[in-house]
């Protein structure tokens, strides 16, 4: 690529930001077009004005949805490090842990792989020996098959074929499938689930199965670091600019560029680029954010909630001593009754507290604020047989236009990692043709 090539990146989600950084590092002059006032896309942070106990309003920074990263997100973590981010300041890294409000605990030990999981399973609480054997059977079966599954297979079919006990399906694999693929097991793609298991629990590096919970709003991680880097490389971010047309020139809203990366969710890319972009089914995620009085829950909870509607509880300490909690309700539990859902989740947390022997009532003195964010198209529905084009799928027709986004060709479901990988790949391919 010629230094100083003018490149447009459309969309400032994690795919677009990764592409922009990679292109700027190779000497391009990058302009990002972002429709929203803030960058970060579906993983953006936003200010939430909560009434403070003394009257007035306090701003709490929350994310569009609670996110969890894993150690296997090698490209994302490497990019954060390359941009000068200190992982230990940004993320709370814990060895793989599944700890539920109903007494299930599986915690990887400090041993090297695979013994960290063998020991974790051996010492697990809340499982029978038949359950343990069943889990090991699925792991071994997949490993012996090179983590390959039959075309068209769903996660539910994979689990019943590997004779998983009912308890293991319901308490372990179903929640992990929803967490990783945001798709109910009856619809979810077994090949993608197997790829995630291969790179996390099946990895020879025990750290790949670690869980990384953001300690700070997500906007303060990759988006902030990328913006700082672009500032130093003469990059420009045009916020509140909804791109309406791309022409093969290439031009973006009639402005000429040498190359373009279209880094949008599939449905938005389809609006701009037409039928070359597939129509993918989508799944929702709802996140209930609660600002809780100090001491209601420990900060640093990562708890599986077994009885719905909430599926996971995360907590982190806020600067003023309050605790910010998030309850995740993924694709499985669609509802349009917002107030009913908030009430049901608070009721669920009251039960958790009462089981812990703590004061259970979550009244107005202890819940300082509640905000439900409903993303109706949070991710594509990760089903078998989807058409997911590669980043250079358009080059035949439009030689200097690449696509990126979590939905482009990958074994992975819609994740931050697939978004980052696609952005980096699109940038490298574009650099070769400019
Ligand atoms: C609630 C929720 C929870 C999630 N939890 C997890 C998790 O725990 N772990 C995980 O790995 N992943 C999780 N994900 C998925 C992850 O957030 C996405 O895979 C990732 O953010 C997608 O990034 P992207 O850059 O591909 O797309 P996007 O983030 O959608 O970025 C596209 C950008 O383009 C902008 N745009 C759209 N149209 C235009 C236009 N015409 N002109 C200019 N700009 C435009 C949009 O505003 C947006 O900023 C979650 C997602 C949600 C919604």
Estimated structural class = alpha+beta
Q: Give the helix proportion (percent range).
A: 25-40%
Through-space gap between termini: 5 Å
Q: Roughly how many Å is the radius of gyration?
A: 22 Å
CATH topology of the largest domain: FAD/NAD(P)-binding domain
CATH superfamily of the largest domain: FAD/NAD(P)-binding domain
CATH class of the largest domain: Alpha Beta
Largest sheet: 5 strands, parallel
The total count of strands amounts to 20
Counted up, domains total 3
Helical run tally: 12
- In the sheet with the most strands, the strands line up as 10-2-1-14-20
| Average pLDDT over all residues | 95
Q: Beta fraction of the residues?
A: 15-25%
Low-confidence stretches: none
Shape: globular
CATH-defined architecture of the largest domain: 3-Layer(bba) Sandwich
Bound ions, cofactors and other small molecules, one mention each: flavin-adenine dinucleotide
